From TrEMBL:
<comment type="function">
    <text>Condensation of UDP-2,3-diacylglucosamine and 2,3-diacylglucosamine-1-phosphate to form lipid A disaccharide, a precursor of lipid A, a phosphorylated glycolipid that anchors the lipopolysaccharide to the outer membrane of the cell.</text>
</comment>
<keyword id="KW-0441">Lipid A biosynthesis</keyword>
<dbReference type="Pfam" id="PF02684">
    <property type="entry name" value="LpxB"/>
</dbReference>
<comment type="similarity">
    <text>Belongs to the LpxB family.</text>
</comment>
<comment type="pathway">
    <text>Bacterial outer membrane biogenesis; LPS lipid A biosynthesis.</text>
</comment>
<dbReference type="GO" id="GO:0008915">
    <property type="term" value="F:lipid-A-disaccharide synthase activity"/>
</dbReference>
<protein>
    <recommendedName>
        <fullName>Lipid-A-disaccharide synthase</fullName>
        <ecNumber>2.4.1.182</ecNumber>
    </recommendedName>
</protein>
<keyword id="KW-0444">Lipid biosynthesis</keyword>
<keyword id="KW-0328">Glycosyltransferase</keyword>
<keyword id="KW-0808">Transferase</keyword>
<dbReference type="InterPro" id="IPR003835">
    <property type="entry name" value="Glyco_trans_19"/>
</dbReference>
<keyword id="KW-0443">Lipid metabolism</keyword>
Amino acid sequence: MSDDNQSPLIAVIAGEESGDQLGADLLTALRRHYPHARFAGIGGSRMQQQGFESWYDMRELSLFGFAEVVGHLPRLLKLRKELVARLIAEKPLVVIGIDAPDFNLGVERRLKEAGLRTVHYVSPSIWAWRENRADKIGMSANRVLCLFPMEPPIYARHGIDARFVGHPLADRFPLVSDRIPARRSLQLPLDVPVLALLPGSRHSELERLAGPFLDAARRVASALPGLRIVIPAANSRALGTLKTMLAHGPHDEMMPILLDGRAHDAMLAADVVMLASGTATLEAMLAKRPMVVGYRVSPVSYRIARMLNMLKTDVYALPNILARACGMGKDAMLVPELMQDNCTAAKLAEATLALFRDSERRGAIVSAFEQLHETLRGNLHGHAGDHAAAAIVELIDTPRTPR
């Protein structure tokens, strides 16, 4: 540990709520190594509750897709320039960028070139995009912390220091899940079919997905007597948006139950989950719940990605990606995926009903999800935040080599 300063600075830049949770877990672990350190940069409410000093509102980085980013580009460039200048001036022990690769990798590269140590926590999806992107990540980060065990070997092919630190979500779910406590907690009957609906957390996601998801859920309810639909809102803004949409929809016995948060309870209580592609698919997998995944990006973003041939995979949901990476077969499709033009209410409802009506298929999916949960734990013992902190401390304590 450096003793150049009584209160050394460790900088963290987190984007989105998932990054805020990772950052909070990481701060808890790092404080055990650096009890007198000052933590600052960009973070959300969970990190700030631990004394983190956020210089900017984390929501400024919560953008997705080419079109969305382009519209905010001048503001993001100004923020990045100010942040880089301040970090170079303050000379932290290390700068840790958590996720948000479109923003963080550019910041990290400039700081690394200026002689600061940099870590990128959460590898971008290099299995889905061009693998040579790994080289660019290596130009930004002295060390990459990976949540999935198949990622470090990819980086190794490019001579980049990457460590598997485990996935924090794997620590939060039991290997074998129990539906009954979750249903009692949500005051749901034990003997009725339950569908959990998670149409995303970003405003842009809700704009594109909430309508088809709600329509699909009503179609499923019409075919399954007694179905209960549970919708956990990801945040206060999503809660308001969903309340408005439900208020303008039909009011009948199929009216969904809207929750303020409690996504894990909703998943555990459900028989089937319909959700947006993203981290939530991993949560549903760890809850051992069969799922149907749908997603749409803006038409402009989608056309650009297709035109540039940027997508290098024909699967998008993390359970499907993990199943293939873990040797369950190159054509493994545990989860139905309805992307872009296929993400319609009719197709979502059809795929969801097929799962409700096939108990044997649901059982096979649950068994596969249990295997994948074990894989995510790897041979690591303890919590992912502790392993991430240990990899960062090791980097800080490693003598610098001449540039």
